[in-house]
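It is worth pausing here to work through a concrete case rather than discussing structure prediction in the abstract. The textbook approach is simple: state the sequence, then state the predicted structure, then interpret. We follow exactly that order.
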Amino acid sequence: MSNHNYKFRFINIFRHFFTITKHRHKVIYHCFRAGIPFQGFLHDLSKYSPWEFWVGVKYYQGYRSPNEGERDDYGYSKAWMHHKGRNKHHFEYWTDYNLETKVLSPVKMPTRYVIEMFCDRVAASKIYLKEKYTDQCPLSYFENGKKRRVLHPDTSDLLESMLVKLAEEGEDAAFAYIRRIKKKTRMNG
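Step two, the predicted structure:
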């Protein structure tokens, strides 16, 4: 490896660290607004583990998840598999074998994690899109992947309702709506 590549990787340590930390801080802020501050503090701590952090450094690009770069090289991402298995705000965590069909199927997510997923998606859109971000962006991202996503219908509907509220009425209305949902459901799970 040339000296240039070492310098680039060294710089990526800081770039990746600042990106994931900035994202995490936005999620913490959003979780406070949503009424789930404790989850905000715990959000994405696994990204600082060696199994996720060093892959993030190696594949850092600044405009998309480093896991996409790892997928480009190997066809899968070990860092993502580590991450989704430890972070309940990812719908991929919520799969299990259906007793009737014997097929891996989506499970309805507890409301608290759907709320955190909303906070995560909004924060990720802001970090990656920067000045191009609008309150419509997280909904557009959700809609673009809807046909490919394996998500429990109730979970999908709840997340979509939050994203629609954000797109149509803005953050203040969306977080007020989320706090009402939180209060009504008493945070199952």
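Step three, interpretation. The mean pLDDT is 93. Residues 1 and 113 are 42 Å apart (CA to CA).
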